[in-house]
Design a protein that fits this description.
It is a single chain. With about 325 residues, the protein is an alpha/beta fold. The chain folds into two domains: about 5-100 and about 295-315, Rossmann fold (3-Layer(aba) Sandwich); about 100-290, NAD(P)-binding Rossmann-like Domain (Rossmann fold, 3-Layer(aba) Sandwich), CATH 3.40.50. It has helices at about 15-25, 35-40, 60-65, 85-90, 100-115, 120-125, 155-165, 185-190, 200-205, 225-230, 250-260, 295-315, and strands at about 5-10, 25-30, 50, 70-75, 90-95, 150, 170-175, 195-200, 210-215, 240, 265, 285-290. The strands form two sheets. It has a seven-stranded parallel β-sheet with strand order 8-7-6-9-10-11-12, with helices on both faces. The protein has a five-stranded parallel β-sheet with strand order 2-1-3-4-5. Helix 1 packs parallel to helix 12 (about 295-315) and helix 5 (about 100-115) crosses helix 7 (about 155-165). The structure holds (2R)-2,3-dihydroxypropanoic acid. (2R)-2,3-dihydroxypropanoic acid binds near residues 76, 100, 293 and 294.
Length: about 325
């Protein structure tokens, strides 16, 4: 039997490359392909499966021409892939859930603390030689203990963030699936029953000192945080986004930060990555990270393993363990 052929669009860390090489003929591109290059590669008839990154746009146009039977995304999120179009074309999609929950929640907590305590400004002051010794009113920030953290969404990463925030003495509220609303039974709260409180999205917006976003990017959540929402937040509030950039209207956010309508923002993701909205980088009341929620050595290794195993399963004609659209081949 001939070995399956797998295309990897960007080099990934071990153990993925070794697992793939043992099971298939593998082509690894040196750097992310342009969209036309990716379309041509996926339509070339050369590959059974493509292992993609968030930067690879797998849209309906590409899928209409694709000859691959599977797309294995090196990420838990898959908003770069038109899953409905893939399903329609009988193309299976895989992702890497579970393994990056704690690392991403750590970054959410880091952004909460970093914005509250002005860590970027403080670091810059020291490096630029502007620290002249302890002063009673130097770099005063905001407490986190006793403050309200509002979680937009209550999935894995939101829950891991709640756990951390409770440890820091914060009051935790959540809206389960904004912008809509749904009932959540106490039994669904598990270890959080009695410790966190469900509120409606509008209440969450109005009552949070820190509003942290944990929703997938869908047509419903695009610009979930827009000028209207920013206007309803407390003027002292801080927005934290470790989810997806387009969940926030970034131009409206810059406006709100510049005019003092909200106090600060901690961002790991951007609306048009890697580009930032004009003037965002100039704002002192922000902590800006380069989409590193899952960036630890062990987490990226796990993502590599899961995405490789998904790709191998699909190349062998088996539904992978982490299929986003498991019925695609039926
Ligand atoms: C994901 O996996 O969706 C993250 O955004 C990148 O690790």
């Amino acid at each position: 039997m001939s070995r399956p052929r797998i295309l990897v669009t960007t080099p990934i860390p071990e153990p993925g490359p070794s697992l793939l090489a043992a099971a298939a003929d593998v082509t690894v591109l040196e750097a992310s392909p342009s969209y036309p290059e990716l379309v041509a590669l996926c339509a070339s008839g050369t590959y059974d499966v493509v292992l993609t990154q968030l930067r690879d746009r797998i849209d309906a146009g590409l899928l209409a021409q694709a000859t691959v039977r599977g797309v294995s995304n090196f990420a838990v999120g898959y908003n770069n892939i038109d899953v409905a179009a893939a399903t329609e074309r009988g193309i299976m999609v895989g992702n890497t859930p579970g393994v990056l929950t704690d690392a991403t929640a750590d970054i959410a907590m880091l952004l909460i603390l970093g914005t509250a305590r002005r860590v970027v400004e403080a670091d810059r002051m020291v490096r630029e030689g502007r620290f002249h010794g302890w002063e009673p009113e130097l770099m005063l920030g905001t407490d986190v203990s006793g403050r309200t953290l509002g979680l937009a969404g209550f999935g894995r990463i939101a829950r891991a963030t709640a756990k951390r925030a409770l440890g820091f003495g914060m009051d935790v509220l959540f809206a389960p699936r904004p912008p809509g609303d749904r009932m959540v039974e106490d039994s669904e709260l598990g270890e959080f029953a009695g410790k966190v409180r469900k509120v409606e999205w509008d209440d969450l917006v109005a009552s949070s000192d820190f509003l942290s976003l944990h929703v997938p990017l869908t047509e419903d959540t695009r610009h979930l945080v827009d000028a209207g929402v920013l206007a309803r937040m407390k003027p002292s509030a801080i927005l934290v986004n470790t989810a997806r950039g387009p969940v926030v209207d970034e131009v409206a956010l810059v406006d709100a930060l510049r005019s003092g309508r909200i106090a600060g923002a901690g961002l790991d993701v951007y609306e048009e990555e890697p580009r930032l909205a004009p003037r965002l980088a100039e704002l002192p009341n922000t902590v800006l990270l380069p989409h590193i929620g899952s960036a630890t050595v062990s987490v990226r290794a796990e993502m590599s393993r899961l995405s490789a195993l998904n790709a191998i399963a699909m190349a062998r004609g088996r539904v992978p363990d982490h299929a986003v659209n498991p019925t695609a081949w039926s």
